[in-house]
């Protein structure tokens, strides 16, 4: 089997409402679909989602780089995953959104060739799991109201965005806990918004409300700061923007800087490197979560398949497709009362032809 063509197409995702985090306000998003075709008629679908203030990728940049990388992999066997990643990495550094788009499409092909759903191709630990739902930054009372609405929809885990105002962050958590009761799991995501001292202050204050973990409390480069926070608080520290690659994961492990590592396909360049990050974490007795950018059901199904496949990936933040109006993508994962269920059809289980 040989790759014969790589097509790219922009997909506009319309948000139900603007989404605010410490790094900025998101009002709409364009993502990019890729189709990798082969000489045997089997094709794979992938997705590259931009997040300029995290990965540095814009949608136009992802499109240009994906088209360039697509030309380089034509003629190669799509199942030679390591070789294809080496080709992409030797051609251009970073550019993880474009690489993720191609990577996901290649794994979709692999699943179709094997006649197996992607979660089984990747390991097959389970076919379903609980995901959290994210509460964007607003006034504390507005956040509490949204949290109650999400719990009423069946979600059992809430991720509370923070990082702009420590006092309001604490108040938001207090009101959310009062609103949703004691049985709902809470974690926070500061998106690099605090200093070390602010992080320690907030995390000690919200401990009484049962917050389990705080994601990326300080800037991505401050690995030593995260390690210091871990020494001073009992709440788990989760590394997100600090870990793009397996090398980054090793740095975090060596510094004892995190209790959990958040893998995102758009940061790692896809499932291939995502698996490596999980393997490093598991060897160091660090659990993982898989998170997402603002992605369609294509990339979310890929990320969710990795969650379901691996025992060491115990947490999931696979909710972003719920914030956008349905673009008409058929197949892929389904969700019921906060539980994501993977399809049993081969590959991603998504059929898009373009």
Q: How would you describe this protein?
A:
This protein is of the alpha/beta class and 354 residues long. It has 13 helices and 16 strands. 40% of the residues lie in helices and 21% in strands. Strand 11 (236-239), helix 10 and strand 12 form a beta-alpha-beta unit.
**CA gyration radius, whole angstroms:** 19 Å
Please bin the fraction of helical residues. 25-40%
Which structural class do the helices and strands define?
Answer: alpha/beta
In the CATH hierarchy, the third-tier topology of the largest domain is known as TIM Barrel
Q: Mean pLDDT, as a whole number?
A: 96
* Adjacency order of strands in the biggest sheet: 7-8-9-10-11-12-13-14
Principal-axes geometry comes out as: globular
The second-level CATH architecture of the largest domain is Alpha-Beta Barrel
Summarize the biggest pleated sheet: 8 strands, parallel
Topology:
Blueprint: E1 3-13, E2 19-21, E3 24-26, E4 29-38, E5 43-48, H1 52-55, H2 59-73, H3 81-91, H4 96-114, H5 118-121, E6 128-130, E7 133-135, H6 140-152, E8 157-161, H7 166-180, E9 185-189, H8 196-206, E10 211-215, H9 223-232, E11 236-239, H10 246-254, E12 260-263, H11 265-268, H12 271-283, E13 287-290, H13 297-309, E14 313-316, E15 334-336, E16 339-341
Parallel strand pairs: 7-8, 8-9, 9-10, 10-11, 11-12, 12-13, 13-14
Antiparallel strand pairs: 1-4, 2-3, 4-5, 6-16, 15-16
What's this model, at a glance?
Helix content is 40%, strand content 21%. It is an alpha/beta fold and 354 residues long.
């Amino acid at each position: 089997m040989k790759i014969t063509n790589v097509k790219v197409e922009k997909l506009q995702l319309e948000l139900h409402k603007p989404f605010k985090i410490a790094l900025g306000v998101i009002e709409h998003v364009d993502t990019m679909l890729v189709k990798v075709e082969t000489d045997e008629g089997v094709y794979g679908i992938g997705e590259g989602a931009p997040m300029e203030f995290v990965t540095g990728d814009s949608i136009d940049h992802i499109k240009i780089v994906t088209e360039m990388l697509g030309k380089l992999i034509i003629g190669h066997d799509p199942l030679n995953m390591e070789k294809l990643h080496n080709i992409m990495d030797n051609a251009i550094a970073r550019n993880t959104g474009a690489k993720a788009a191609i990577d996901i499409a290649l794994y979709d092909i692999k699943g179709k060739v094997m006649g197996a759903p992607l979660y089984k191709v990747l390991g097959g630990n389970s076919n379903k799991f609980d995901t959290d739902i994210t509460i964007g930054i607003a006034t504390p009372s507005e956040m509490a109201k949204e949290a109650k609405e999400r719990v009423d929809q069946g979600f059992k885990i809430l991720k509370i965005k923070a990082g702009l105002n420590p006092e309001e962050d604490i108040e938001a958590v207090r009101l959310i806990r009062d609103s949703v009761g004691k049985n709902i799991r809470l974690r926070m995501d500061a998106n690099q918004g605090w200093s070390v001292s602010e992080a320690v202050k907030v995390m000690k204050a919200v401990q009484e409300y049962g917050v389990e973990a705080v994601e990326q409390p300080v800037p991505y480069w401050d690995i030593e700061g995260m390690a210091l926070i871990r020494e001073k608080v009992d709440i788990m520290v989760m590394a997100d923007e600090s870990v793009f690659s397996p090398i980054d994961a090793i740095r975090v492990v060596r510094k004892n800087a995190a209790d959990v590592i958040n893998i995102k396909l758009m940061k790692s360049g896809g499932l291939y490197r995502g698996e490596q990050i999980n393997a490093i974490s598991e060897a160091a007795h660090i659990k993982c979560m898989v998170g997402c950018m603002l992605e369609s059901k294509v990339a979310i199904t890929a990320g969710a398949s990795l969650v379901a496949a691996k025992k060491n990936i115990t947490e999931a933040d696979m909710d972003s497709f719920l914030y956008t109006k349905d673009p008409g993508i058929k197949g892929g994962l389904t969700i019921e009362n906060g539980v994501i269920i993977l399809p049993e059809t081969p590959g991603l289980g998504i059929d898009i032809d373009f």
